[in-house]
Amino acid sequence: QKEVEQNSGPLSVPEGAIASLNCTYSDRGSQSFFWYRQYSGKSPELIMSIYSNGDKEDGRFTAQLNKASQYVSLLIRDSQPSDSATYLCAVEGLLYGGSQGNLIFGKGTKLSVKP
Amino acid sequence: NAGVTQTPKFRILKIGQSMTLQCTQDMNHNYMYWYRQDPGMGLKLIYYSVGAGITDKGEVPNGYNVSRSTTEDFPLRLELAAPSQTSVYFCASSSGRPLSGQYFGPGTRLTVT
Q1: How many CB pairs under 8 A join A and B?
Q2: pLDDT tens digits, residue range A61-73?
Q3: Which chain A residues contact residue B90 at CB under 8 A?
Q4: Hey, which residues 7-26 in chain B have their CB within 8 Å of chain A?
Q5: Contact A43/B106, CB-based, under 8 Å?
Q6: Whole-angstrom Cα distance, residue B8 to residue B82?
Q7: Cβ–Cβ under 8 Å, residues B2 and B103
Q8: Hey, is the C-beta of A71 within 8 angstroms of any chain B C-beta?
Q9: Residues near A63 by beta carbon (within 8 Å), at least 6 away in sequence
Q10: What is the pLDDT of residue A9?
Q11: For residue range B58-90, what is the model confidence (pLDDT) as tens digits?
């Protein structure tokens, strides 16, 4: 069973701090990794994708990937109250017949940014 | 572009009733997906499609059926609704290109009583 694990939280950080969200995955052959943000009562929204080991930066967001440790993380710099949401880690897997584009989702980490 | 649209937004069904959840995308994506999301349980894949005329089961397909007659539409059919099908249902689509990810519709909140 291929799995994606996340700490459910809640993770509480003060406004302006760095929020660090972590995710581990079980399938060593996984190649593509994604972070989604989901506000309460809304649908998941894609915010970052990463393929290569190392860091990928996009504005206040940095995704970090370590394939040897099967670990992917999301850093949010200068956290704002509007960043308060659940963050879902997703790993692309060849499940269910080997079709590219299938994602395995973690259960998500709830982030709360306090003013 | 409207992206991925879903109807209805909310629905209450009685046990044993049937209904179809509609999903349409205007991004010309070949890949489409149906997920359900229960509180604290993450997203579970119900069915997916890699193109018109091709569908396949995901992790939790029992009690559901799908069809894909066009690239744009991917309806999900619930037959003989049960309380266990109370959930939020999301449709998503993807181009299938590496790192393209999936794009989600706004969801349908379904209650079966």
Answers
A1: 59
A2: 999 999 999 999 9
A3: 43-44
A4: none
A5: yes
A6: 18
A7: no
A8: no
A9: A33, A35, A48, A49, A50, A55, A56, A72, A73, A74, A75
A10: 84
A11: 889 999 999 999 999 999 999 999 999 999 999
